[in-house]
């Protein structure tokens, strides 16, 4: 008769990849979004100032 054995669980492998690339990608993504926001704010404020200057001229 065969003895009952429980199936062995697969061992978890530790990833060799460092979490730094994901962290760096996150920083780049946030920096890009901040740059886009700064450009948008500058464009809108410039447009408002030009509109006020034009309104004052006429």
SSE blueprint and pairings:
Layout: H1 20-57
Describe the structure.
It is a single chain. The chain is 66% helix and 0% strand. With 58 residues, the chain is an all-alpha fold. The radius of gyration is 29 Å and the shape is rod-shaped.
Write a brief structural summary:
With 58 residues, this protein is mainly alpha-helical. Helix content is 66%, strand content 0%. The chain contains one helix and no strands.
Q: Which regions are unreliable across 5 or more consecutive residues at pLDDT < 50? A: none
Listing every helix as H and every strand as E from the N terminus to the C terminus, the arrangement reads H
Please provide the count of β strands: 0
Reported for the largest beta sheet, the result is: none
Radius of gyration equals 29 Å
* Individual helix count: 1
Rounded average pLDDT: 85
Shape: rod-shaped
Class derived from helix and strand content:
mainly alpha
Distance between the termini: 103 Å
Into which percent range does the helicity of residues fall?
55-70%
Beta-strand percentage range: under 5%
């Amino acid at each position: 008769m065969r003895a009952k054995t429980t199936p062995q669980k697969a061992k978890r492998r530790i990833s060799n990849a460092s979490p730094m690339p994901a962290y760096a990608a996150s920083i780049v993504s946030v920096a890009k979004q901040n740059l886009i926001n700064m450009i948008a704010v500058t464009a809108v404020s410039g447009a408002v100032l030009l509109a006020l200057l034009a309104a004052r001229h006429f």
